[in-house]
Amino acid sequence: MQDALFGGINAAALTPMHPDLSPDLERMAAHCRWLLANGCNGLGVLGTTGEANSFGLHERKAILEGLVARGIPAGALLPGTGCAALTDSVELTRHAAAQGCRGVLVLPPFYYKNPSDDGLFAYFSELVNRTGGATRIYLYNFPQQSAVPFSLALIERLLKAFPGVIKGVKDSSGDYANMKAMIAAFAKDGFEVYSGSDEFVQRILADGGAGCITAASNINARFGAVVYAKRTGPEADAAQAVLNASRKAATSVPLIPGLREIMARSTGDAGWRTIRPPHLPLSREQAEAVWAAQQAAGVLPLPGLAPAKAAE
């Protein structure tokens, strides 16, 4: 897809924390700079991997403001702004627009289960009308987490009602047929479809999708960048194989603690293991297993970071 606002490889960035569990903005900004220098075209911040729903409204604003103040380009940031409460989603979306973000990633209202398409349309209509189309809206389709999927009929209705505002989707369903159906139905109108899983990067680009927004891009984005640049051929195929193996390794343990473990060992900074409950750091056995799996995948060592250290 040409001219996609976030076309390419986007990391669903981790949110480092201080020992008191407050966001560590210096470490996060440094991580964002490293990601942008090592294969990422953009950064999905304050999403699932960034533990957005473990942070309060004021914390989420402070994180975004802190990154921009530390020189992370607002145009490269796609912050998550979807909340169960409509007014919170409106406030965060307006705030992201004020910071200069070109788009926001919005979960459906996820507390009440089995809402109708009419109810979801009403929710997103209110969001668009109350924010005045200040920034582009990307739908976050992650039914395993939200329990609220976006149907093709709902997307079509939203695109007709709000052309140019409803701009795309991150599909973390793991159902590639659903991603392909969205591309077939809507990509011709400039609707950007992003995979939430590394295993589909090469395929989604070939089918007319815009790229990916993935958790494992925190550590494997440089291989995604090869796939994005080359698309086909031996080099692209080899890089896609690394993405597949890295994704499998990342999901062999609890995903977010596992990625934090890789960062802790790769940087020699044990603070990366700090995580808000209900998430917990990996056990020693899990830590050893995921490190070995990422080594076998070909991702390690991470470029430009300190030599790896053993678990503490």
Automatic annotation (TrEMBL):
Q: Which InterPro entries match?
A: Aldolase_TIM, DapA-like
Residues forming the catalytic site: 140 (proton donor/acceptor), 170 (schiff-base intermediate with substrate)
Claim: Nucleotide-binding is one of the keywords in the record = no
User: Could you tell me one molecular function GO term of this UniProt entry?
Assistant: 4-hydroxy-tetrahydrodipicolinate synthase activity
What are the protein's UniProt keywords?
A: Lyase
**Top-rank lineage group of the source organism:** Bacteria
Q: Which residues bind pyruvate?
A: 49, 213
Q: Which PANTHER family match?
A: BLR3884 PROTEIN, DIHYDRODIPICOLINATE SYNTHASE
Q: Which family does it belong to?
A: Belongs to the DapA family.
Indicate what this protein is called per its UniProt record: Dihydrodipicolinate synthase family protein
- Name its species: Caldovatus sediminis
